[in-house]
Amino acid sequence: MKRFVFLLLAVTVWSATVTMAQNAPGSLASWLPKQRWQKRVVLLCAPNNTTPELQAQQQQFAAARSAMQERDISVREVLFEQLSAADKQYLTQKLGVKTSGFTLLLIGKDGGIKRRETQPITPKSLFQTIDVMPMRREEARGSKGT
């Protein structure tokens, strides 16, 4: 029972965090470049919020919130059914995302796509990708020296 309550609380916190990112001012095409050199971005792209892979990914990430903050990760849900025509075009042409299913994109602080997945991944797998990046290694060395 405790585990269920924790999971429910974690998903609620996760949903609030993602909702804030979803409601970020401006379009995806204007928001994303503003994250450059500030945050690593994980885009969770899905047709709608009932997509099973999206829900599974939300559950995977819910318990890893502090580790994601430590790595300067901003998660944003991108629901195709809610996108403007301009954002759909940006997503498909600029980022190469297909609108027919789930896609996770990891975008580095430099603005480059570092990882693309069509199935949910574990936080550990995401962190392994990030933790070998030169910028992340430098950040980790800097925080140890403080």
TrEMBL record:
Keyword Signal carried by entry = yes
Sorted keywords for this record are:
Signal
InterPro entries associated with the record: DUF4174 (IPR025232)
Query: What's the superkingdom here?
Result: Bacteria
Q: What Pfam families does the database record attribute to this sequence?
A: DUF4174
Residue ranges of every copy of the DUF4174 domain listed in the record: 33-139
Q: Where is the signal peptide?
A: 1-21
Report what the protein is called.
DUF4174 domain-containing protein
